[in-house]
Fold:
Amino acid sequence: MPDTDHVVLLDDDGRAIGTAPKSSVHGPDTALHLAFSCHVLNGEGQVLITRRALSKRTWPGVWTNSFCGHPRPAEPVLSAVRRHADFELGLTLSDLRVALPLFRYRATDANGIVEHEVCPVYTAYTDDEPVLNPLEAIDARWVRPEALAVSLEATPWAFSPWLVLQAQQLHLFETPSRERRAS
Structure:
């Protein structure tokens, strides 16, 4: 995404109170702002995890959910999710649903940079194979949700803190197959 992107700043109740350049928001005292996360599944019931680019300012090289990002001011969150799916992974999504509408977290990276976000969490499906934007992700894997749950429990330090926290709240690991959901 362009360096000129802005994020939506929020008050403690999650109401928009302004905007700021994305490049200026993340630091040692990050203001609360709006973001989103998305977990993408395929027709085989596998979930896509990605490894963040080494150039990322926070948690570089760490495995995380399929993708995440920030809506631009006045941009509907669903539009931002679809925009990022295409930009970061070349994916077209279907059955996009909010799974954790009120998810919120604050975490500090080893380099002292803080993530402080109200971050609704979405699930979606795709029949596409990811085409990675190297500025965003350097690796991707389709994994069984149960195997991911085991890895998150055994080695939480190898994953983004938001993925670990989201997995504790998501029923992703209980998600029925796409075919059963359609019936």
